[in-house]
Design brief:
about 375 residues, about 15% strand, alpha/beta, single chain
Length: about 375
């Protein structure tokens, strides 16, 4: 390794064989993105603990940083998975240079190793800038041909004087040939909030399997604004809805979705169900239903309501301590029949407190009665 103040490098001997160090570092930095084939399909009950997923990814990122700054040899050993999950914030010029110009020990461009990109909302003094992407972000995305997932977290917009891409120019310059999952949330500062900062062609990618949207901060509607309507044809298999206004709101923007391959619905909170009115015509083709861990689901029998909307569903996933048991058929009434053949339950502990301690057993029995 080069030594400060010396013109000749000092020899460095690895403490263990490189293959063994690679295995150790791989285990130490393990995270959900590593198994990208599983991640892009939204594993069951991921919505019950979304912060835990991101915490695991952040922990792995911190360990990677420590390895990279320890010595060049460590960085070369773990380069294969060092850039599998990147964060794109303000000041991303250094990341751009690495992904565009550096290669790993096998000669592969660093950008080709990226599996997921977390795009933090970046804005400037321009009111509309947070709905567009920066030029650095564009360069990063373009040099990641194997990008499989994109995540926009629900955080405040970072105000930065980065240059932004012209909206018309950015629409046709993103060849997302392998993108399979998008998790998109509005920022509390987005005005109007958007789910289309990325060009619409991305949402219509034929490879896209999973779309997770949540826009819960729409500006107030006075009744005088014009509503912009955007039509999107998507080939997604899984749709995760995080809020009532996931597909827009009057006076802002409404998204009309055409979903010929939709098979799975995931609802994060009770008001998400009302967003399904926008896609009610696809209810009969849904085969898998899943509920998030939200105490609001204890207030009513949401399972029966959704089964009416999805009469052909065969698989049902519920976090048992945050779901109201399905009501019994009353005597004298023709019993309701559903197509459910596979019931999967989760006893996620963080919401078990929503059911009083003395009623937990009765609550469990009610689900099986």
């Amino acid at each position: 390794m080069p030594v400060a103040g010396s013109s000749t490098p000092r020899s460095f001997t690895l403490p263990l064989p490189a293959e063994l160090l690679h295995h150790i570092f791989e285990l130490a930095t393990d995270n959900p993105i590593r198994n990208i084939d599983l991640f892009v399909d939204l594993p069951p009950f991921e919505s019950t603990a979304p912060s835990e997923i991101e915490d695991q990814c952040d922990d792995a990122l911190r360990i990677k940083y420590s390895l990279a700054t320890a010595c060049r040899a460590f960085r070369d050993i773990c380069a294969e998975f060092f850039y599998e999950d990147i964060r794109v914030r303000y000041g991303s010029k250094a990341l751009v240079e690495i992904l565009e110009n550096e290669r790993d020990i096998h000669g592969l461009p660093m950008g080709s190793l990226v599996k997921r990109a977390v795009l933090f909302p970046v804005g400037s003094e321009d009111e509309n800038s947070s709905t567009r992407i920066t030029k650095d972000t564009q360069r990063i995305i373009l040099c990641c041909p194997n990008l499989r997932a994109i995540f926009r977290p629900r955080v405040n917009v970072i105000r930065e004087s980065d240059e932004f891409v012209n909206e018309e120019a950015s629409e046709n310059e993103f060849p997302f040939c392998k993108l399979q999952r998008i998790d998109w949330s509005s920022s509390p500062c987005d005005d109007p909030p958007v789910i289309a900062q990325i060009p619409l062609s991305v949402w219509s990618s034929k490879e896209l399997r999973t779309l997770s949207v949540g826009v819960n901060e729409w500006s107030s509607f006075s009744g005088m604004q014009e509503t912009e309507t955007t039509e999107i044809l998507s080939h997604i298999n899984t749709l995760r809805v995080r809020s009532l206004d996931a597909f827009g709101a009057p006076g802002q923007r409404l998204f009309t979705l055409t979903l010929p391959k939709l098979k799975r619905i995931v609802l994060d909170q009770p008001d998400s169900m009302y967003a399904l009115f926008s896609i009610y015509q696809y209810g009969s083709q849904i085969t898998t239903m899943e509920f998030g861990a939200h105490s609001g689901f204890l207030q009513h029998d949401y399972i029966a309501i959704l089964l009416v909307y999805c009469p052909n569903a065969t698989d049902l996933y519920i976090p048992i301590f945050s779901m109201h048991p399905t009501k019994k058929n009353q005597e004298g009434y023709h019993p309701s029949t559903f197509a459910i053949t596979h019931l999967c339950l989760s006893a996620v502990s963080r919401l078990s407190a929503a059911v009083p301690e003395g009623m937990k057993w009765d609550h469990l029995l009610a689900h099986f009665d």
